Amino acid sequence: MLRASVIERLAIATASTALALLIGVSIVAAAGYDPVQFITSMIQGAIGGQSAIARTLRFSTLFILTGVAVAVAFRAGVFNIGVQGQFVVGGFATIMSIIWTAPLLPEGIIGGVGLLLIGFVAGACAGGAYGALPGALKAYADANVIITTIMLNFIATGVVGWLVQNPFRGEGNAAPNTERIPEYVSLPSIVFDSSGFSIIGLGIALATVAIIFVVMERSRFGYDMVTSGHQESAATYSGVGAKRTVVMTMALSGMVAGIAGAVFAIMIQGYYTDPSGIGTYGFDAIAVSLLAANNPIGIIPAGLLFGGLESAGSHIGIYTDVPVQLIDGVIGLVILFVAVPELFRMAAVRTGLGGER
Amino acid sequence: MSFAEYIKGNSGRVAGIVVLVAAAVLAAVAMDLPFLEIFTVGFVERSLQAATPIALTAIGGLYAEKSGVFNIGVEGFMIFGAAIAATMMWIISGGSPGQSDVWLAILASVLVSLAFAIVFAVLLIRYEADQIVAGLALWFIGLGFGPFMAVLVWDSRNSPSLESINDLTIPVLADIPVLGPIFFDTSPLVMFTAVLAVAAWKFLNDTRYGYWIQAAGENPEALDTAGISVKRVRYAAVIFSGVMAGLGGAVLLAQAGSFTGTGETMVSGRGWIGIVAYLFGNYNPLGAAVAALVFGGLDMLQIQLQTVGINVPNRLVNLFPYAGVILVLTIWGTTRTPSAVGEPYESEE
């Protein structure tokens, strides 16, 4: 995948998505549903009208942020599968820090902005720390990052789930939720009149993309990160501390995931709930990042595409009787096909579309 | 490699297990826990049952990795195995499954897993897919389509109560104190897994085919020179690992007696734990089975703690195996990975 040119990558990404959707539609047809109606309601759910677009952008915001978190690590050759856990820990830290410090600050706009800053910093720090932990285990004990991060996802969901059910459950709450954060702590929607989406949230996501792009492409640290990912020995000869780089990479990746968690917690929920039911943004982010070949800029279109898919999924869940789990399966198929560029290269050669063998 | 040699070569690991168990015993004594009431025969039996799906998956994954292919998709295969066994049991029996339907469902699930494993092996070996990414993809495909099948059949991600497998009592042997009820009056799937672990160990270390598998992972050029197709050996190992993980999922379902498709599904990380089990067992099928038993025991510990009146919240106790995995990887992180793992092999002909 790394040797492919930009055009090849684009072609592979498009072909993977198209093939996965085609299989999804065939399964829909095979299961006895109307495929044409399925396709129209998918398009309707993704871009049909203002509220559908707002919903797509809401999901896209989260996919762009979590996608960048994955890309930072994958680009450095560190398989951080733990973005979901870092996202959960970050979001939970955001809500709790806001609830705890709210009584200390004045109400209104000034207090609101102050609490937002506190919440974002807390989310980034908690996510970063939860990412740095498996990084340190890799660097100093050689523990496989893929497996430790997957285990840490289960642990984050379990522990936060228990915390919101018991010690941190809001008073008198029937559901396992924390208290709500104050009304004045929110990201105003401004453009779309839709609860749960704020153009500021999308702005934060795009700004994060820009910052990460600059860090990875233009800074010394980014250079060290990418070289130690691809040529460990070369990096060591040029004086890069490979161990420190792994920890820093995981911390940075976790911080971005924590910011994603903060955006989710503040913009969408306003409280924290059992994380086993909040969606799998951190997992789908792996697909987003791979589709973009782990390039921060490429994350933007890939995130928009996944936002559209997710939005279409929730529309389908409400207005048709096709099970929404299908969309998750289709996302898995997209990842599978992205992993096999050779398949498309061979197909392109056979059909005379290009490519060399 | 004989068993004695294995113990010798892994003295660090064996000593580690001894130290861990000793520490657990000491802690239990120090905290004045009713030790005998926790470590009962029933506990060992339940731990063995919990260990079987993990052990089956671990043995398969171990063969694939020994042959030079990291099959990280075993979690996905397990989810499919469980979902297919559940839906098949329902469809075959027309909604009221009995014991024979359980066995048919396991068989059907193994056959479908075989078909999936062949496709997966072709993608990995012929089309040189990125093994890590493709394996992860398989997990997501399972997480999506597993519950999808359940929704198609039952309109819900969880199945109604189906049939679970009955214990098999072997006459005479079952009357031996302690060992009898543990090994000879238990699920036939436990017995099968115990036999399979020994067979897999003998096969890998004492047969020509076993050597081929090891050579495909350690020194593919030499195997090629000897006139054996590296790709064929790897195809066999990867397909075997997919089938074993599918079987692991089906066994998990046959023991639970119903399918759960919410959250991370009923498989809930057991495939990943299987991978850790064979790493911990240092690529030895017997070691992997013992490690699976340790994780199975951690999983069942909460029931024991509850029966003696220690109320640790379920949600937290359920996390023991995951924390155990991290601990194991941190202490014994460095394993002797076969040298050619992850590299596609191109024959020179």
Question: Any overview of this molecule?
Answer:
The complex is a heterodimer of chains A (357) and B (349). The two termini of chain A are 15 Å apart. Chain A is 72% helix and 0% strand. Chain A contains 14 helices and no strands. Chain A has a domain at 61-286. With 357 residues, chain A is an all-alpha fold. Chain A is globular, with a radius of gyration of 21 Å. The mean pLDDT of chain A is 88. Chain A has helices spanning 6-30, 35-47, 50-75, 83-101, 109-141, 145-165, 199-218, 220-230, 232-237, 242-269, 281-291, 299-319, 325-338, 341-350. Chain B is mainly alpha-helical and 349 residues long. Chain B has a domain at 55-279. Chain B is built from 16 helices and 2 strands. Chain B has helices at residues 3-9, 11-30, 35-38, 41-66, 74-93, 99-126, 131-154, 179-184, 188-206, 208-218, 220-225, 230-256, 270-280, 285-307, 314-317, 320-331; strands spanning 168-169, 185-186. In chain B, helix 13 runs parallel beside helix 16. At the A-B interface, helix 6, helix 11, helix 13 and helix 14 of A face helix 7, helix 13 and helix 16 of B.
